[in-house]
Amino acid sequence: MMAIEGKFIDNPIERYKVMKFLENELDRAGVANIEIQRTPVVTRIAIEVLNPGRVIGKKGKTINALTETLRKKFKLDNPQISVVEVKNPTLEPRLVAKKASKYIEMGKKVRAVLHFLLKDIMRNGALGAEIVASGKIGAKGARSKSLRVADGYIPKAGEPARLVDEAHVSANTKSGIIGVLVRIAPPGTVFPDKPENSTVESRLRQDERYVKRERDYGGRREGGYNRDRGRPPRREEKKPGQPVERVQGPPKDAKAGAPKPEAKKEATPAKEENPAENKEAK
Question: 211: how many CB neighbours lie within 10 A of its CB?
Fold first, then answer.
């Protein structure tokens, strides 16, 4: 009995060691998921990555070296590695958690990063998503706290919780380690407590999920709310090529207010001077 119990303990530990080894070796390839299946004949290892070329290598050199290492170091019987390319990296919890940890290590605001990634996940059709960041979020010496953002339907307990993909990644910052937990309910998942054709309502607005919303300041400009109170409104600047709107006044009445046309003065011809008449006058 003790030998059988020991196998139940050793197998998960060996599986964990193999998965950690493959994650460290194939970090640049973008590992999303690793599945290990043991049979009496072979040990099948399925690796889902973003860039399969980095796993296979030139003429299969990298994948052959990994197979030899798994056989000698971990004593696996006839290991066979199969590489699968990830179709949509936004719906993979491990890739999303790595992306969040990278942004946090760069010094981005944690709350803004979590909301941005949550909107990106829901935009790609996920039924639900939850992202939790816990640790020393803030300046050096601050107390540890946790931030959580969630949307859609995410079961936490029971049999439906097994249908949710989950991953945890740590971000190393100057103030300390911040853990990022990502849980995603992929599209097309059928939960026992939900009808097959049911739709999950998102708390995010339609314009927030698909269109970048323009910020509305409520008619206020820089310089304070009461800056322009009591002043005449400013004229809008005309853009080049914009047609000018002209306002036509009321028609004038022809009888009452119409001005009379001025009469044309006829030009009189100048008289010619006669020198003989001038002498007689003198």
Answer: 9
Q: pTM higher than 0.70 for the full model?
A: no
Which residues, including other chains, have CB under 8 Å from residue 262's CB and lie 6 or more apart?
none
Domain that holds residue 68: 2-86
d(CA 246, CA 258) in angstroms, rounded, equals 23
pLDDT digits (tens, 9 = 90+) for 116-146: 999 999 998 899 999 999 998 877 777 888 9
Is 206 buried (19+), middle (13-18) or exposed (0-12) by CB count in 10 A?
A: exposed
Look at the chain and report how many structural domains it folds into.
2
pLDDT tens digits, 233-252: 566 665 666 665 665 656 55
Q: Tokens 């959580």 map to which residue?
A: 148
HSE at residue 10, side-chain half, CA atoms within 13 A, is 7
pLDDT value of residue 238: 59
Residue 97 CA to residue 170 CA, distance in Å, equals 8
For helices 2-25 and 61-73, give the axis angle rounded to 10 degrees: 150
Residue 101: CATH number of its domain: 3.30.1140.32
